[in-house]
Amino acid sequence: MTTVCPHCGWPDDQPFHVVSRHGTGTGSTVWVRCACGSVQLREIGPAGTRILSRGRPDPDAPRERCGA
Ligand SMILES: [Zn+2]
User: Fold this and answer.
1) Neighbouring residues of 44: CB distance < 8 A, sequence distance ≥ 6
2) pLDDT band at residue 16, thresholds of 50, 70 and 90?
3) C-alpha of residue 36 to centroid of ligand 1, in Å
4) How many whole angstroms from 7 Cα to the centroid of ligand 1?
């Protein structure tokens, strides 16, 4: 299964920039920023990677902002 960013077409299996990673009971939760500035929340578990939510592109956002 290969998906791409609906905003810029970046392949989801090649994270542009991993913002942060948190361990959970079943795997980990990862925030990824796309090349277009869209921030994704991913859940990585035994069944693979799932994208829980995806933000809008934000070309003007400072790099340190976390999609809030
Ligand atoms: Zn994108």
Assistant:
1) 27, 28, 29, 30, 50
2) very high
3) 4
4) 5
